[in-house]
């Protein structure tokens, strides 16, 4: 899977292309070869005959285990360094060897990273530390210009810097780590939630805690304050929300699809239902329920992530066009009119653990 940025956008653009091609073929009798030569400018970005400069391609790697909006923010910043972002997702074996088994397997971590709207390509089974051989591959095969990492030191168990080679080659750039969240924090919140409900700590919780509360800070998986089970306080700013938002409003004639939910601990099942929902129209509006609404319907210990955090995770998803930060439980007539909603996709009740096998049945289109 060299490129996974092919879901929705290329789908609709190829449909558009097909339509253009059909019309072109009928009206002007353009031959297939001519259409192929003119129709796919993105296939030749490295064509030096054109005036257009080759895009700057940047690489960032990570484990992306239990992915959260902090990872997304790092990817957003990395993308800002260049024109195209290629992300290496570390293999299960490499994570296991360096810090213990990951919670989410590679295919799921790949899916989550591919769904982030700032990611252009994903490379599976990336090494934990960039080797000479892999670095050559990045430069020669993937045409990478710069290797990006956060400003936290990434020291291997043997004391070496994981990015030493890239730095030596003069192809290293740094971004700031700003988001006040880490997987350690999230696991801490989950443990608090479990502990409040049950006194006996199961072994799986203990091992989760061990993995995320020990270890060295690297690869965007921990690095938050490591003081045991501790709840972080994320302070949302309007700037961050703007940075995560799409600038485009719905086009005048677009079919607006609405879906609502808690989207707590944003995962691969959420990504899949958002992808399907987006496919039903031209613009996907996602209503995120308030913390109070989620608690009232799912129990006092939910949600784990607060409204703003959940909104950022959903906004980072490439299938989402806009979110309502604090949507009501019921879709009102007023909302339908205000947002010109054509279709309400009902995914709310199927958000729990059995979500992934049930969502297909839930993807109905009630006439509201
Ligand atoms: C509302 O949505 C419909 C499609 O469902 C579209 O035809 C119409 O132009 C939209 N109205 C406005 C004011 O955008």
From TrEMBL:
GO terms for cellular component: cytoplasm. Pathway: Phospholipid metabolism; phosphatidylethanolamine biosynthesis; phosphatidylethanolamine from ethanolamine: step 2/3; Lipid metabolism. Residues 198-230 are annotated as: Disordered. It comes from the Eukaryota. Keywords: Lipid biosynthesis, Lipid metabolism, Membrane, Nucleotidyltransferase, Phospholipid biosynthesis, Phospholipid metabolism, Transferase, Transmembrane, Transmembrane helix. Its EC number is 2.7.7.14. One of its GO terms (biological process) is phosphatidylethanolamine biosynthetic process. Gene3D superfamilies: HUPs. The chain crosses the membrane at residues 21-40. Residues 59-188, 258-362 form the Cytidyltransferase-like domain. It is an enzyme of class 2 (transferase). One of its GO terms (molecular function) is ethanolamine-phosphate cytidylyltransferase activity. Residues 200-215 have a biased composition (Polar residues). InterPro entries: CCT (IPR041723), Cyt_trans-like (IPR004821), Ect1/PCYT2 (IPR044608), Rossmann-like_a/b/a_fold (IPR014729). SUPFAM superfamilies: Nucleotidylyl transferase. PANTHER family: ETHANOLAMINE-PHOSPHATE CYTIDYLYLTRANSFERASE. Belongs to the cytidylyltransferase family. This is ethanolamine-phosphate cytidylyltransferase. It comes from Artemisia annua.
């Amino acid at each position: 899977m060299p490129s996974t940025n092919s879901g929705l956008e290329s789908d609709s653009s190829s449909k558009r292309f097909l339509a253009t091609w059909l019309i072109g073929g009928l009206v002007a009798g353009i031959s297939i070869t001519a259409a192929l030569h003119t129709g796919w400018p993105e296939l030749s970005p490295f064509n030096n005959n054109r005036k257009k400069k080759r895009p700057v391609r940047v690489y960032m790697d990570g484990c992306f285990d239990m992915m959260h909006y902090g990872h997304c923010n790092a990817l957003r910043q990395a993308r800002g360094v260049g024109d195209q972002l290629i992300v290496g997702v570390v293999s299960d074996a490499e994570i296991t060897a360096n810090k213990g088994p990951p919670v989410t397997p590679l295919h799921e971590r790949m899916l989550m990273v591919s769904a982030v709207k700032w990611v252009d390509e994903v490379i599976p089974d990336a090494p934990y530390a960039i080797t000479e051989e892999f670095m050559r591959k990045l430069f020669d095969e993937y045409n990478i210009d710069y290797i990006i990492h956060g400003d936290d030191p990434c020291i291997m168990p043997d004391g070496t810097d994981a990015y030493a080679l890239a730095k030596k080659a003069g192809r290293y750039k740094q971004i700031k780590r700003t988001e006040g969240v880490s997987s350690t924090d999230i696991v801490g919140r989950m443990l608090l939630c479990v502990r409040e409900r049950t006194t006996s700590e199961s072994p799986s919780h203990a091992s989760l805690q061990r993995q995320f509360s020990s270890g060295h800070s690297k690869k965007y998986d921990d690095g938050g304050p490591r003081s045991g089970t501790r709840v972080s306080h994320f302070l949302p700013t309007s700037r961050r929300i703007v940075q995560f938002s799409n600038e485009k409003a719905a086009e005048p004639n677009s079919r607006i699809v609405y879906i609502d939910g808690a989207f707590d601990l944003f995962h691969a099942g959420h990504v899949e239902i958002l992808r399907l929902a987006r496919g039903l129209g031209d613009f996907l509006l996602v209503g995120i329920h308030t913390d109070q609404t989620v608690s009232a319907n799912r129990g006092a210990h939910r949600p784990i992530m607060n409204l703003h955090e959940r909104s950022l995770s959903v906004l980072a998803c490439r299938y989402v066009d806009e979110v309502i930060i604090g949507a009501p439980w019921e879709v009102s007539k007023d909302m339908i009119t205000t947002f010109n909603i054509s279709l309400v996709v009902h995914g709310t009740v199927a958000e729990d653990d059995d979500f992934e096998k049930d969502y297909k049945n839930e993807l109905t289109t009630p006439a509201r």
